[in-house]
Amino acid sequence: MEMKITIDGSIRLPAEIRERLGFLPHTEIEYMINGETLLLRKSHAPTKGKKLISRMKGTATAKATTDQIMELTRGE
User: Fold this and answer.
1) pTM attached to this predicted model
2) Where are the domains of the chain?
3) 64 Cβ contact partners less than 8 Å away, ≥ 6 residues apart
4) pLDDT of residue 17
5) What is the DSSP secondary-structure string of 17-49?
6) Could you report how far apart the first and last alpha carbons of the chain are, in Å?
C-alpha cells in the first residue's frame, strides 16, 4: 500500500490500519528508524493523566469510603 506525504509533512493512515492497530484520535505514538524503514507503534510512555494519578495515589487524608465520597459529590 502506498501513501503520499503532504506539503506540511503529514501522512494519512487508512482507516483499516488505524482500526487494526487501535490508533484512535490523540493516540501517542513512537517511531523508530531502521535503515530506510520507519516503524510506528503506540507509545508505552505514561500520559500526563497517568503521571498525575501516579503522583497523587495514596495521598488522600480523608478516611471516607468511596461510597461516602460519591454521596458527598453527587448530593441528594
Assistant:
1) 0.50
2) 15-74
3) 72
4) 92
5) HHHHHT--TT--EEEEEETTEEEEEE--SPPHH
6) 57
